Amino acid sequence: MLLLFALFMIGTTFSVASASTKQASGSLSRSVAIDEGRQIFLKGCSSCHGLNAEGGSIAPSLIGVGAASVDFQVGTGRMPMADMTVQAMRKTPAYTPEQVAAVAAYVASLAPGPAIPGSEIVNYERDGSTAEGGELFRTNCAMCHNFAGQGGALSQGKFAPTLMESDPKTIVEAMITGPQSMPVFSDKIITPAEKLSIIKWIKAAQVEPSLGGAALGRVGPVTEGLLAWTLGLGLLIGIAVWLATKAR
Amino acid sequence: MSHEVANLSDPGLPDHVHRLADSDPAAEKKAERAVAFLFILSALGTVLFIASYVYIPHNLFVFVPILGSTNAHQLFLGLGLTISMLCIGLGAVHWAKTLMPDNEIIAQRHEFRSPENERKEFVAAVKEGAAASGLGRRSIIKRTLGLSLGLVGISPLFLLRDLGPLPKEQLQTTSWKTGTRLVTDPGNRPIKPSDLEVGAVAQVLPQLTPGEERTLNNIGKDAVLLIRLRTEDFQLSPERLSWTHEGIIAFSKICSHMGCAVALYEQQTKHLLCPCHQSTFDVPRAAKVIFGPAARPLPQLAITVDSEGYLIASQPFTEPVGPSFWERSS
Amino acid sequence: MTAKEKALGNVANYVDERTGAAAWMKKNLNKVFPDHWSFMLGEVALYSFIILLLSGVFLTFWFDPSQREVLYQGDYQPLSGLKMSAAYASTLHISFDIRGGLLMRQIHHWAALLFMVAMVAHLMRVFFTGAFRKPREFNWIIGVGLVTLGIVEGFLGYSLPDDLLSGTGIRIAEAILQAIPVVGTYLAFFAFGGPFPGEVFIPRIFTVHVLLLPGIFLALITAHLMLVWYQKHTQYPGPGRTEKNVVGYPLMPIYMAKAGGFFFIVFGVIAFLSTVASINAIWLYGPYTPGQISAGSQPDWYMGWLDGLVRMAPPLETHAFGHTISWNILIPGLIVPGILFTGMALYPFIESWITGDKREHHLLDRPRNAPNRTALGAMSVTFILVTLFNGGNDIIATNFSLTINQIMWFSRIGIFVLPPIAFVITKRLCLSLQRADRDLVLHGTETGTLLRLPHGEFVEVHAPISQVDAWKLTQHEQIPALELSTEDSHGVRRGNALRNKLRSRMSQAASDQVAKPNETDLKELEGH
Predict the structure, then answer these.
(1) ipTM for the complex shown
(2) Nearest to C520 among B5, B93, B291 (CB)
(3) In this predicted model, what pLDDT tens digit does every residue of C473-488 receive, in sequence order?
(4) What pTM did the predictor assign?
(5) Of chain B residues 299-328, which have a CB less than 8 A from chain A?
(6) Which CATH number applies to C32-365?
(7) CATH 1.20.810.10 residue ranges for chain C
(8) What are the phi and psi torsion angles at C518 (to 5°)?
């Protein structure tokens, strides 16, 4: 019964997510796309990553990072970085999907690297298993992203972001490219089929209904303790004050 | 020198102030109605509770502001209980406050100390009783009684002995043996070095021999994290470098501090962080502790590849994994 | 006489003829209880405990305290088909399949949190008002025992469902056991029936959680209440209230209605929390396995301070003669808590030793009138707050854009620096408040009316405060410092000279007061 509900929720929220991510350069010929990507790269990226994407003192080389990496970093707005002191944050993308695709094509042309995942990931609903995904998530992801995908603290102010807004494509891209602090989860270690299960679990977690009232951020006992001291004790003291005051 | 100073004088208990309900029949009636209203509300709460239990299906969800999409069965059951309980209480207290007599009463306290003669008599009675038993004189009885009572106290400790086995070597050993293949957790697939790119990690366990079951006890000691770095990033002693394979280094995932799973690998800084107490380990320097309460690096597992090219342990762990214990020698 | 009254009389007669209870009951039905909101904190704890018993019994009907591995095939899809312990599976069953089961689980957990909250708040009230003084030292010790047991009982309950979070907690508890020198490994193996996690720990702690500890709780709570009853409740100072009397409402009917009603109110508030706020959603955590972990793994708040202490501990271990001593676990996990709780239990005796005050006290102190004690309390609270803050450092870091390293260093330094600062500030504050009280009694309140004196100076007219207020501000006694000599009458140094010196020093500090106004001061003022 719960399952039915969860499925219903997933079904309604998902179909919107991944429509725009198809290769936008379909109509362009490959070399034109690479050329356009190079132009965008020179304007927007080369000041840090070098004129030939060879990297610099403040930014890594992009040779061999692949199209998936570009699509993840630029497509989620993390690149270009607004502030070099903190980790790259998810924000409104600076480029259109077409431009992102062009830069991705350019970077992919420099050296082979992980490609943008294709249409097979759309099938996570059919091919994945939520429970298996949860098992994989708790072994490989929960230590940073928390048991419910809410994110968590890393050392020195870095953090693992919440996954509550992630779409299947960026989830896979993150796993195969290892952006920022995140390590790479190769296809041999977590197979593509297993990745679909992880996506399915995350998508279920995103719409996980609240069974017992407000979820309190799903970060465990800290918020619960805070609520017990504030709302719980506060209400009771308020009533006790009323109880002990003489009636008029 | 006297510290007694003349205190201000105690004005005594203030005069009783009457409540509205004491003098005004309308106010009294109003208070009575308020109490009755609360009790009726409580009854309605119970009706809501029962109705929710019987009629609201277990899988119905409703949207409530602040709470989000929440289970209707649980919500209305809880609301019913809240109303029924809270209103009984509020009604009873309101009743006591407004309608029951509110004259303050003064009760006198008495010192707890017994009168002197009673204390003397008590002491005498104890002394007399002790003398009558002759415990003071009969020292052999006193000593043998002490012996027997002391021994009786020990026997329960023996009964608790079978709570568990002696530790023996169990904390010192794991399932990793020379040649044990590393397999993925979950999945149990053997791993080749080429499966891991630079910057990749893998959670691994020892491969089971046919017919062997993996227990949580095993996982609690055997869990290992594989990390692949660039070989030039290592700052290891030659021996430890030989324990790595093509830039792949393996550490026990069980924290050397209190045994949580240390699997939080930061790819850029190459630090491993334990989410329980935030001990931070520097992977290129053999998981040296660089922050937090852990006092020892994570044990490193020596790895190599077998004839089929799969990663194997080239020897068992050379030190116990997990938290420290008294018998641990280093 | 109506028929009803007659029936009531018959019942009373029947009982009295067999027990002789009438005399005792008559006396105790008029038992006087003073009214104050802060006296209800202990009641919150008591009622939470009763709610814990009720909801706990409900949960035992379905909970299967076993670590036997089962395959979950229930309705909750994200866990369907996974292997887990029967304990975890049965907790899922209670949450998803038993009508009202989740509500009762949440009531049980919220009641547990509130039980601890109320006990700690009650303990602070008793401490800051000096209610622990003679003749109530025994009850203070019982109270400290109840808080200690509450922490253990709460931790065991949190551990029972065998989810990923609680399993991690057990893992840490096992590491603390294991770290005890000489016998630690044996204790751990006996407790767990072998290596961690084994298959017997949850069945064992279940018995302790539902039978042994509740039994001890019941006995201690009974003793606690009987002593309150017998010794009569303390009261706040006020006109007509003395050390020799107790002013309040009679048990029957006022206090019975209020206290009885308050039980339902506490139940209602806990039911409300359990309705609107999810707690310990174990189905999200997943079943426990030692190879998994979640970011932000935390214990419940009453263990959070311990976790915070463990996090901030220095990485110290001694390896010598083939043995290891883990100071990084022993100091924060056993030694510091041991010192804290022993010190807390002994505090009434320490204070009376320092002040030399061996008399009975039934009137409560206003915290400002015992600056040293209040400052000491503020210092302890600050200590615990720093540890709690560090215990939640990862959650705080992500929510307030801080780093765990910053918070850790702040706590490591703050744990030594902030409590003494809190002590000094609180003591100053108490003395300032005393000074303000003195001014109020001597000079009255400012009326805002200006008066021009004949020689042209403007002064503000002060109105004297009422006699009742003046009494409230001056009724307390100020205990002078002990004068202990280090030499006897012949000028020879006494054997206990050092002890006397220390005691004098502390007594001096404890008697720091702003002299309260007395009749002479007032008369003098009038003479002007």
Answers:
(1) 0.92
(2) B5
(3) 989 888 888 887 777 7
(4) 0.92
(5) none
(6) 1.20.810.10
(7) 32-365
(8) -130, -175
